[in-house]
Protein: MmgE/PrpD family protein
Organism: Ramlibacter agri
Amino acid sequence: MNPDSGLTASLGAFAARPQDFPAAALQVAAAGVCDAIGTMFAGRKDAAFATLRKVLLPEGLAASSGEASVLLGPVRTRALDAAFLNGVATHALAMDDVAAGCHPSALLVPALLAEAETLGRSGRDLLQAYVVGYEVLAELASREPDALHGAGWHPSCMLGPPAVAAAVARLRGLDAQQCTAAIAAAASMTGGLVANFGTQTKAIQVARASSAGLLAARLAAEGLTASSDALERDPGLLKAISPQRRARLDGVFDPGELRIVTQGLSIKKYPVCYSTHRVVDAAADVARQPGFSAEGVQGVQVDIGSMQAWMARHHEVRTPFEAKYSVEFAAASGLVARDASFAQLSDDFIHAPLVQRLIAATTLRLHEEKSADDPVFSPWDRVVVTMKDGRVFDSGEVAYALGHARRPLDAQARRRKFLQCAEAGGFENGEVLLNKLENLQDLPDVRQLST
């Protein structure tokens, strides 16, 4: 690598460098791929997926001879469209994983899966490319000291396309110049707003980021040029979207110890906004305490970060979409069901009199202090419940949600989540596919996943 090159070129050189990543990195990547495919099946019945499918695959145009599969099924289409469709399904239920303030697997897996099917690449090739994409995403996120959400940007959509482009470029075996061009071109394909959280467009904008990264890599492979300092130029992408214009622009990328190993992935347990997961866990902890009964609750106080509450901004909940982005619903669901899963995102549960009463009885105490791990979050969340008889139940401070990289789900819990997602999406061969995914490193051709 040229020590005088900037960030964009050094990321391109990293993506092009032939290297085998360590087993620990591939293991995390494999967990991300498996989780993303599970959430993809769960989202196949979502209205956003159905809408996009009508546009991209109108009646009579669905084929069995396209480049890549839709939902690993018999319908095939262009890889760009497959990545778009599968990306929407993956993110539709807000149940895909989190790292570096983004949704790495919802970004990387749809594009890599589509391109790996097109090229006949192996499972190991896909995982190696995933690691590249994760590292690029984590590096870009690390250069911004302020929360992009605060400026209205959806970080996954602002930082995701360059990361996806790097991953696909690695999968295609592009050289350093082409990889740099792919990353730089993808910087011009970013875009996504927090304003669309709680709507179907949130899944669309994440999926569009995945497809855009794939497009940028393909264009670079055909000779497209782009500025070799598109990320770090003043102003380039990082400076342009930085809320306080404090993004770090200097210095090249030095991979050092891989962040995918040191930071890992947070596998989400619940299909609701991640900013509310600690609240669900805290409320569920209260519900398990001896003598607690949800029927006897007088009032609920939730301590939570102001940015988290801003993203989960629905105080009155009437629909599953609103429930996904509601702190009050998260508390009520945890207190009543000790969970916030598919069963709780139903009209019957949402409109149950007890649930609605608890939502109305919940007040928020907002905190401005930022977590050292993620500026979107406060250092901890907490649920304190006052009963009608005067007793008080306190969850204590919850710093990490179940499934967080520092509080991970075990292998059995991840398997259970995958199978529940497959069942929720009406996919009947969950066990068979899961067995293939658990041996993805040894799969000679990714297309075998869809057979």
Q: What stands out?
A: The radius of gyration is 22 Å. The first strand starts at residue 68 and ends at 69. The domain at 7-268+411-450 is CATH 1.10.4100.10 (2-methylcitrate dehydratase PrpD). The longest helix spans residues 201-221.
